[in-house]
Amino acid sequence: MPSLLYCSKPLAMVSLLLIAALCHLGSCNGGGRGDRITKLPGQPEVSFGQYSGYIGVDGKGSRALFYYFVEAELDPISKPLVLWLNGGPGCSSLGVGAFSENGPFRPSGQVLVKNEYSWNKEANVIYLETPAGVGYSYSADAAYYQGVNDKMTAMDNMVFMQRWLEKFPQYKGRELYIAGESYAGHYIPQLAEVMVEFNKNEKIFNLKGLALGNPVLEFTTDFNSRAEYFWSHGLISDSTYRIFTSVCNYSQYVSEYYGGSLSPLCARVMNQVTRETSRFVDKYDVTLDVCLASVLSQSMILSPHRHVGQRIDVCIEDETVNYLNRKDVQEALHAKLIGVKNWAVCSSVLQYELLNLQIPTINIVGSLVKSGIRVLVYSGDQDSVIPLTGSRTLVQNLAHDLGLKTSTPYRVWFEGKQVGGWTQVYGDMLSFATIRGASHEAPFSQPKRSLVLYRAFLQGRPLPENFS
Questions:
Q1: pLDDT, tens only, 379-398
Q2: Keyword Ubl conjugation, does the record have it (predicted)?
Q3: Are both 309 and 331 inside the same structural domain?
């Protein structure tokens, strides 16, 4: 099994060499005109530009990442550039992020309906299907899919951004933010770290900030906060809480499960936890009676199940999956299926090194803050998979380690005349916020509050303190 130790220097050096080899290849054409979307099937009339297509990332033309790019609704020239990444690992930013969460449209039957809380109200947004093997992204050499890891993903993502900026030179020098959720807590800090290293030789990434939603940042803290969340929300009993924190905690269970050595003791504990929490409660939103496969699928990898066949699928259909498997939609998107028969929310061909979960990225977040990049960690407060308590603890400890003092004490923030959540700010570079009533995928379950948070983050302003 590959080493689980993260080493930034080799990754950065390899990336520099790779990009040097790629930067003069012929796929860079100014403006991205060939990727412009005339109109998506069933789409309402809009004034902003849309683009989608492929960027080769291996120098051989055999591995390419698919992107969907929407310009800002108003005045795109003055708005920042945002890269959005979903997690999994191995799940689609197109199907989850763009068409289920914060993109401009959501499928409804045969048509698309406008999302009034789309994030392209505030920025020009790229949705990237990564790594190769996810969604429409592909490797012509299927051997690549065996043993993909965080280092490989970070490298390809940076090559993608470098070449995307060559294709869209009007965005060179534009303020860049990277946002995402779930396992993007690994993708984003490692991508940002390589960008910062690259900029030491040639400054092409004007990276200003990261927004990490319900992110995996430190395996033990994030996963073991689940027990307290279950107990405090009435999902497990006192006695089960005790064994879940002393006999076999969740990080131990996941390590054993993905390591292929699940002990009978941990199996018994998890069976007890599963019985009490019930398979009829959505762990990614413990209060919401809803099922949308394209939203939930990216999170399933974070909650391994021994008896997959016993799970009940209460979703009758997933309109996003249906829409993105239409031939006319694929033609409009300039997309193709290579090595798979259908587009899927999460990859069926990618074999990701899931024990990369154990590699902490909170230390990388700290180095990025020290380098002058703003970081927001936010949590949908109804998520029991990566609970707010673990994320809040990690941010507090990081602030302490960096010597950052509290500049905004823990307080509520408002969306309209309702409490939108709670927030705390450390110095002027690191902040934590909750989104009240939101799930693991906050922009899906609380789109209006998520947009308020996102707008404040991009503008570098405090979250609203008063009714509006």
A1: 999 999 999 999 999 999 99
A2: no
A3: no
